[in-house]
Amino acid sequence: MKSKQLFWGIFFVALGGLVLINNFVKISFNWAIILDLWPLAFVILGLYFILKDNPVRWLFIVINALFIAFVLFAAFKSFSTFIDDDTEFHGNYNVQHFNAPFNENVKKVNFTLETGGGHIYIKDTSMVDLVDARFEGSSGEYNFNHSDKGEDADVILSLEHGDIHFVKEAFKNALHLKLNEKPIWNMDFNIGASKLDLDLTPFKTENINFKSGAASIRVKIGDKIEMTNLRFEAGVTKIEVQIPKSSGCEIRSDASLSSKRFDGFNKIDKSTYRTENYDSAAKKIIIEFDTGVSSIEVDRI
Fold first, then answer.
1. I need a labelling partner for 41 at 20 to 30 A (CA). Which of 58, 88, 195, 220 fits?
2. What per-residue confidence (pLDDT) applies to 89?
3. What is the tens place of the pLDDT at every residue in 236-246?
4. How far apart are CA 214 and CA 202, in angstroms?
5. Rounded to an integer, what distance in angstroms lies between the CA atom of residue 160 and that of residue 249?
6. Rounded to a whole number, what is the distance in angstroms from the first to the last CA of the chain?
7. Which residues contact 99 (CB under 8 A, 6 or more apart)?
């Protein structure tokens, strides 16, 4: 049997088997762990070429076909669980509510979110609390930690759950966040396979870092601070960034395998793009992309 025939045969059998099983027993688990390992497909393929004349090469073909089938199935399942607010729940799910009171002495906040899947929203401000968080989900629970250190505050939200959960009801993890607009925010989002819908226009965002496997990220940035830095490290992710036209923006892109749309930007070199008003603008935004096979859009509004 030819290697190409073996690969595609194993691939379709594995993918079809996973879909068939899922039709009878709904599968959901922490996709982030698996999807962060997608580059292993290239490692396995490279080992195959190294050992091309060795009989063991057939084993690498089988492993690679199984791995790619599983990752594609995981990506499909991840995006299929991104459901809207009006979704009706059936069965049991967790409801958690956290809040950290705002201390007028706090000038800067280090905010960290660690999650494996679900839908995360930031759409509203909180005048009383530093952070207000409400979680509704059928998988896992969040841990919430908050501490003040003089003019600095640390807030950490982390989703804790097992790797595999078999459920018969609808699956949903939705986290709604409200933030105080007075302090400066530094944010780290380690989101795995999640969907983010973030309106950060009311906030003074200094540094925002995203790390994802297969995800969807929509983020809107304002002009409340002189310099905002965004960094995206992503595998297979749809990224949409909206920035104000009045701000000067520079994009640094290491994303040769990704589709890119940077309307209103001039190409400086093979990896750098700038708006016409970058040098003259009072407010500036730096965006860095380090992505695999992703879709990237940056819009000026």
1. 195
2. 44
3. 889 999 999 99
4. 28
5. 37
6. 56
7. 126, 129, 131, 132, 133
